[in-house]
Amino acid sequence: MSNGANVTGRRVLLGGAAAGAAMLAMPRIAGAQAKVIRVGMPTILSGRVAILGTSSRAAVQYAFGRINEAGGLGGRTLQLVERDSKGRPDEAAKVTRDLINNDGCEIIIDGEASSGGFAVHEVVRDLPVLCIHTNSETSSLTADPKLHVKTAFRCARQGIHDAVAGGVYASGISKQRGLKRWMTCSPDYAYGRDNTAEFLEFAKMYDPAIEVVDQVWPRLFAPDYTENITKALQVKPQAMYSALWGGDLVSFIEQSNLYRLFPNVALFSSSLGDPPVLTAIKQLPAGLHTAYRYNRNYPEKPANTAFADGFTALAKHEPTNWAWQNYVAAQFIAEALKRTNGRTEGAALAAELKGMQISSGLAVEEKLTLRDTDHTLIGYPTAWGRTVPKAPFVEDFAPIPWSQILEMETQWKKQKGYA
Amino acid sequence: MNLDVLAGCVATASCFVTQVSTGLIVGMLLFLVASGLSLIFGVLGVVNFAHGVFYMLGAYFAFAAYEATGSFVLALLAGAAGAGLVGIVFERFFMSRVYGKDLLMQLLVCYAAILICDDLVKIVFGADYKLMGMPEAFATAPVEVLGGFIPGYYIFMVGMALGIGAVLWLGINRTRLGKIIRALAINPQMVGALGINTRLLYAGVFGMGCVLAGTAGALAAPVRTLTPGMGLSVLIESFIVTVIGGMGSIPGALVAAILIGLTRAFGAIGFPLFTDGLMFALMGLVLILRPSGLLGARTA
After folding, report:
1. Domain named Leucine-binding protein: which ranges (chain A) (predicted)?
2. Is B218 part of a structural domain of the chain?
């Protein structure tokens, strides 16, 4: 009896254990068979730069919506799960961990600005899912080999590319018009200072006659720029470079208009070309020089116009620079998932993304590339153009050859010890 | 430090005029916000940490009115009145419950108001930045004075701020209502015992403080971008002005605001890397030499 009872008890125990194991395994099995691939996005959805996050989110939703409507990827659909980091790097790291560990996200689209982007980068080093940074423009994120993460990529414009393009364009204008006395007005934080230094480095390289007569550094999110504008009136530069962006740039332009600054000073701006900035400015002066951020007419391709129309219908405003970058990232992810037959392991997806090329209406030529050596995007528009007061707001885009940008980038990497 | 350039600027009429006008432009908006803060503290004895919200609301109300009517006068009135009305509601339903309570409780109520109002603005107006645009009447070339240039809109803005400051001072010091308000600040029990509705007065004074902040926001709307949370940046500088001028002193707020404005304007020429630091250095100096502020009431 006692033996039989023991055997029965053991069977009950084994049966219970098996049932328990099966129950515990169920979510995993269910996850493996799930029709939905969850993609997490830490980004900034509140505060002064919330449009960065809201337009990034809308772009991915638009891209995923189109993919899902077309039948998904082998019958599986893509779902975006976004979290607000409030622009804080510590919060960005926390929500990224939560998205992976608690929300079942198998891929991360990092919609953070640079400060949060580096924090997300380190999380992905620990939890190696596929991560595509879509908004950080700081070059070192992918250029510095010490920061390399095998499953992390950048699908965004990059500071060094813009600096070379800006230097080539600005030096051409300065030589043509004899603009020797330059001043800068950029926000006083890492991006503003680095961006300005890189622009000047290449502008002076191509036109050694350029002389920087003054530099002012208003603090980030300053409400008033009058003291900087009146200083420019005293210094009397012929040209000014500014890395101000967003609402700060809108205030700066409008306040400068009151002093009629721009008829006398040629402005070169890294960020004026973003549609929300252009449309927010009530009196946009003609002839200001700006880097491309996004424009529905450039590159002049039907696919670009279709993206602009589709995004605008969803978001109720024109695409931003962040929007196109996130849209393209979603396209890269979809293509990688197609090639892995839906496998979402970070290493498998990364292997596909290395050197991947996709045809895109947002490419300068035919294709956009995620470069295999440093996991970063090339082939995107880096042109500069001139403002006009009415839509399309920027015209006469002058493209800078990517061959020239890549050559200078290689030299820059050697100088920095990155190559 | 560019002391040579600074000396050159002070010695040159055009530079001097431009930079003094810059100081007044920067200072006068700060004065409006800080005078409201000071008025509320002087009479009610509470620090309105949510004061920046009323600056933001003033700007957004003005923006909405301008979009709807195209009238800058109506926009100014909407900004001032809207902020004042919200201020009265805030005082009656929330702030009045924490008078005399722990400072932390007041801080929490104000912080909650900031978060709620910022979110409401985001829901109603969107998270992206907006700009009202310059009214047609001011879209003119800047006025030349001794070789320096001053935009017409800024002349109007400084004039408005000075006018409002003068009316406020006269109202408090030369009218019966002002006498009652001053009495309320000193002995509210006695004022109540005389049959005056002190709750109404408290709400009115709080509302007036918010009207001043709202007017500043409405005046700023044509030249500064509107974003949810925009009140924070102006609040910090307003606190500096209030501390330098003396908590509760309207003339002190005026003097301090002009000082801060001039510090920023000439600091940008002479100390371009330390302009913000100069403001705090000035505040530190005043706190050491005269802890109650330049024109604040000395405590025994």
Report:
1. 37-378
2. yes
> SS3 for A108?
strand
Domain map (residue ranges) of chain A: 33-158+299-378, 160-298+383-416
Question: Does the CB of B154 have a partner CB in chain A at under 8 Å?
Answer: yes
Q: CA–CA separation, A286 vs A356, rounded Å? A: 39
Residue ranges of A 116-175 with Cβ closer than 8 A to chain B? none
Residue B140 in contact with partner chain A when CB distance is under 8 A: no
**Residue B212, domain member (yes or no):** yes
Around Cβ B13, how many Cβ atoms within 10 Å?
Answer: 11
One-letter amino acid at A163 equals A
Domain-located, residue B295: no
Give residue-wise pLDDT tens across range A312-322. 999 999 999 99
Examine residue B279 and state whether it is found in any structural domain, yes or no. Answer: yes
Among the partner residues A231, A258, A281, nearest to B268 by beta-carbon distance = A231
For residue B150, the one-letter residue type is I
What total of structural domains would you count in chain B?
A: 1
Mean pLDDT for all residues in chain B: 93
Residues of B (260-279) whose Cβ lies below 8 Å from A: 264-265, 267-269, 272-273, 275-276
Assign residue B71 the CATH number of its domain. Answer: 1.10.3470
Structural domain for B8, as ranges: 3-289
Q: How many CB pairs under 8 A join A and B?
A: 113
Q: Give B146-202 pLDDT, tens digit per residue.
A: 988 999 999 999 999 999 999 999 999 999 999 999 999 999 999 999 999 999 999
Contact B54, B36 (CB under 8 A): yes
Which pLDDT does position A329 carry in this prediction?
A: 98
Cα–Cα distance for residue pair A276/A315, rounded to 1 Å: 12
Contacts of B21 in chain A (CB under 8 A): 230
Strands A394-398 and A384-387, by their bridges, are antiparallel
Q: Full-prediction pTM beyond 0.90?
A: no
Residues of chain A contacting B267 with CB distance shorter than 8 Å: 227
The answer to whether B11 faces chain A, any CB pair under 8 Å, is no
Nearest to A259 among B131, B134, B142 (CB): B142
> A33-158+299-378: what fold?
Rossmann fold (3.40.50)
**Do A33-158+299-378 and A160-298+383-416 agree at the fold level?**
yes
- Of A49, A43, A60, give the one whose Cα is nearest residue A274: A49
Question: In this structure, are residues A361 and A327 in contact, taking their beta carbons and an 8 Å threshold?
Answer: no
Nearest to A400 by CA among A172, A176, A159, A140: A172
What was the ipTM of the complex prediction? 0.89
What are the DSSP calls for A69-87, one per residue?
HTTTBTTBEEEEEEEE-TT
B 78-107 → A contacts, CB under 8 A:
none
* Predicted pLDDT at A190: 79
Q: Which CATH superfamily is domain A160-298+383-416 in?
A: Response regulator (3.40.50.2300)
Question: Which of A325, A345, A346 is closest to A125 using CA atoms?
Answer: A346
User: Shortest CA distance to A137 belongs to which of A368, A325, A358?
Assistant: A325
